[in-house]
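User: I'm curious whether this sequence folds into something compact or stays loose and floppy. Could you predict its structure so I can see for myself?
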Amino acid sequence: MTVRRIELAEVVLHPLSLAALALLLINDNLVKTQSPGLLSGKLSGVAGMALMPIVLFGLAIVATEVSGCLPRPGRRAAAACIGLVAVAYAAVELWPLATDAYRWTWGLLQWPGRALAAMAAGNPVAGVRPVAAWADASDLLALPAGLALAVILRRAARPRDEAPRMRRHRSNQAI
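Assistant: Here's the prediction. I'll summarize afterward.
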């Protein structure tokens, strides 16, 4: 059996990927603004922890396509993506310096959009502001959501023409 090549669309457009993205967008843009609290914080953690390894793995696929000389990412790369995101997530939740780095990094990444919106509205452009983030060790309960990438890849790695096979039970065999 040969393992077939995993395409970017299979990972990014998988129902788990789309569900994690929808959860993150709805939660961060609606739920947190209408009723911030314990549940909205945990939902963000689950959605982010599920989505970030998928995004990282997708970037690895794009990098191999662009370079033309790197091998396609596989199970080891997926495990590295999951592990890297889990370690970074845990650091942000447990270490104040990592929490501040997270807040300022996301603030910097959001600044161009905010600056363009301010200029389009004729308002003065504000400087970079950190995003709001609260470190909470109980958010580590979201770590298993990072395994969404492993679930996606397990299904995608199966050859298309090979349907799951049922085992024949001894009672069904001819005598």
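Summary: Residues 8-93+142-159 form one domain. Residues 43 and 60 are 26 Å apart (CA to CA).
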